[in-house]
Amino acid sequence: MKETGISEKALSPEEIRAAMSESGMWTVSIGDDAYPELLRHITDPPGTLYVRGALPSGKCVSIVGSRRDTRYGRQQAFAIAKELARNGVTVISGMARGIDTAAHEGALAGGGKTVAVLGCGADVCYPPENRVLMENILYAGGAVISEYPPGSQPLAYHFPLRNRIISGLSQALLLIEARLKSGTNSTVNYALEQGREVFALPGNVDAPGSELPLKLLKEGAAMCTCAEDILEGLGWKTSDDEPDDAGEQLSFTESDDPVLRALALEEKTFEELAEETGMPPGDLSAALTLLEIEDIIEKRAGRAYALKRK
Amino acid sequence: MLARALCYALQGIDGCPVTVETDIAPGGFSFAMVGLPDAAVRESRDRVFSALRNSGYACPESHVTINLAPGDLKKEGAAFDLPIALSMISASRQAALPDLLKTLTLGELGLDGTLVPVRGVLSMVIAAREQGVDSVILPAGNAAEVQAVEGMYVYPAYTLKEVVDHLSGKALLVAQCQRSYSECLTERTEAFDLSQVRGQQGARRALEIAAAGGHNMLMIGVPGSGKTMLARCLPGILPDMTVEEAFEVTRIHSIAGMIAPGQGLITNRPFRTPHHSASLPSLVGGGMDARPGEISLAHNGVLFLDELPEYPRSVLESLRQPLEDGFVTVSRARAHTRYQCRTMLVAGMNPCPCGYYGSRTRQCHCSDHEIRKYLDRVSGPMLDRIDLQLEVDAVPVSEIQTSAPSECSAAVRARVQAAREMQRGRLKDREMFANAQMDNKAIEEFCALDSAGQKMLETAVDRMHLSMRGYQRVLKVARTIADLAGEEQIRLPHIAEAIQYRTADNKYWGR
Predict the structure, then answer these.
(1) Are A269 and B393 inside 8 Å of each other by CB?
(2) Cα separation of B201 and A273, whole Å?
């Protein structure tokens, strides 16, 4: 058993047992058959895993990125995770703020399983605002995993170590946004060391969050712009498996509704819509509400509207 | 010998009569002033003595006692200089001033005997008028302020000597012409007009609705999106103030000493923009003598709080109750005053600490956590008092240059006025005058929906996670939108539009 597994306020064995039964936690050790096969073969596998929920099996992809995320990063993480989940891939991440959270949420929205690997006890919710997310992950048949016993606090040195489990559990890793010096970098290094396929999502060259992805892309990481890139890259799906339904979004160009026509190709602000449709602002507001309620469009930051991605 | 003069003291927003009694008795020189004078009143002795001497009168050289009756009322300010000087002249028999008790006299004296304007004149003159006094002598700089008071002979004077000559009948002052309120109103010009606002159609519409229903409003937008400019246009599209309203506003400003010499009745609705570093007393009122705060200075007008999350939470919370009640009670050890503060709150804020969340031109570099922390500085109960929430987008420079001039404030004001009249007719039995004031009962009665509207609103509550509190706000705003359209029945498009002004709440605060 590793020393790192003991937090400052170590619980007694009885307390640990009580905490485990209360949160429905179980353990799996490296000798057990249930121990994840991929994780068993990394250089420094954890001896024991504390698990709530069901351990992942089959296709697993980890999605990691910065806590200082942008809307772009968050949206992409969400969309890609969602699409992966639809294709039966388990999305693994660290439940941190930002990209991690978006990835978990995306996977849940896609109706798939997702696994959160924590740097604290699996019964401790960190960050606290993700309490509901944690419950949803378990509810959807995913898992919350930690190598630290219940009640362990989220100490800073836990997180770099926890990162080896994130990459260790998955066949591939997708990097969304991160700076050169970041915790995410350690996850990427573990993934490379463990021989995992590394994908990176390109971002603007001048955005701080693009530093690490662009560096990796230069060094030969696989580029990912959509979930298909990962599915095809890993041979889980070939390009002619099924025709994609890209036609759906364009269909509004011929719509009778002036608002939908204006939104057919890109998101627009309220002012641009008012200009383009020539509608009085009151009528336009009313029309937008109705479309929003029908779930056809969505509102974005800065009073912008866009067609909802199906 | 004894002489009496009539003056008025300020008691909060009201004036109350004070008799200045001066007794000059034989004996060696001594001077006593009684009747709870504050420092400014006590110092009047030195000003008055110099003014007397420099105006050619003799200073009393014996036993002087001055009493400001009633003795239990605290007297403040320099307005007593003139009646004290006059009563001294009369008591020392340098001139016969028979009408000293029938004429209200007030004003500060300069050492050379000139009259200097004082604060609170309008309140004192109104109180005097109500108590049957029909003439007032005051510093010329204060004359314009009271020109709309009916039934009062106002004699503006420049020096002490003029006043003495007038009262003794030697040389009469010329009474100021009275002006009716409608004459004063013609002077109304607003510094900011909606025609100066380019683009921003959505925001203009929201502003019109806010004005029509008296709704509080929150604008969320990137720096430079024109939030302040839009807010400044709001007073100009509000209906003209009634005479009563104009008097209320002028009185509060007069007491705060914010009327420039020569300035008449205030006919423009006030627009106040306290900075977020402003202290609590400066906002709600206070200080030693319980002066009105910004919230009262904005009475009948607009209180604009820019950068809302930057205000200390304690300050924002202390604004809540007064905004709801329409008045604020300022209590201090020696003063206890109730000021009106029926004002529209307009708040502006950035969507995140750096300001550029959601901007198309600049990248926001705030983390989710930072944004949440920033937004959480605005409390739920505070948000709850804001009916309209609006996201304002920056107008591209190209559009500013090319777009045609937009509709002017006067045209919008006409529509607002019509909508307000509909509301007044509907709400007059309940002593309300605008939709924003409606309570649950009134909402139930006046905001009935047709079946299509009801169904849509229910869907919206469900889909867009509208809270129950939000639901009521939507109904109120929908009522105003229907009023602007001149319709008694709230229909589906009205509700649908109203919902747009609620969604920011959900998006940013998730409530």
Answers:
(1) yes
(2) 10
CB-CB contact of B335 with B328 (8 Å):
no
**What pLDDT does B334 receive?**
65
Nearest-angstrom CA–CA distance, A165 and A285: 49
Please judge whether A301 and B463 are an interchain contact, meaning their C-beta atoms are less than 8 angstroms apart.
Answer: no
Token digits of residue A124? 């401790």
Q: A95 in helix, strand or coil? A: coil
The encoded tokens of residue A2 equal 């590793």
Kindly report the CA angle at B334 between B331 and B338, in degrees rounded to 5?
35
Put simply, whether the predicted model's pTM sits higher than 0.90 gets the answer no
- Rounded-to-integer distance, Cα A122 and Cα A127, Å: 12
User: Any idea what DSSP says for residue B271?
Assistant: E
Q: Is the dihedral of CA A277, A281, A283, A288 positive or negative?
A: positive
CB of A128 less than 8 A from some CB of B? no
pLDDT band at A127 (very low <50, low <70, confident <90, very high): confident
For B199-214, write each residue's pLDDT tens digit: 888 899 999 999 999 9
Residue B403's pLDDT is 67
Distance CA B259, CA B263 (A): 6
DSSP H or E segment with residue B305: strand B302-305
pLDDT per residue as tens digits for the range A171-216:
999 999 999 988 899 999 999 999 999 999 998 888 888 999 999 9
In order of their start, the domains of chain B are 2-167 (3.30.230.10), 194-412+420-428 (3.40.50.300), 438-511 (1.10.8)
- For A231-253, what is the mean pLDDT? 64
- Domains with residue ranges and CATH for chain A: 8-233 (3.40.50.450), 247-307 (1.10.10.10)
A&B contacts, CB < 8 Å: 104
CA distance B317 to chain A (A): 25
Distances from the Cα of A60 to the Cα of A87, A102, A280, B270, B285, angstroms: 11, 17, 51, 64, 63
What letter would DSSP give residue B38?
-
Residues 6+ apart with CB under 8 A from B2: B21, B22, B23, B91
- pLDDT tens for each residue of B369-387: 788 888 888 887 888 788 8
Element (H, E) at A116: strand A114-117
Are A96 and A133 in contact, with CB atoms under 8 Å apart?
no
Cβ contact, residue pair A97, B367, below 8 Å:
yes
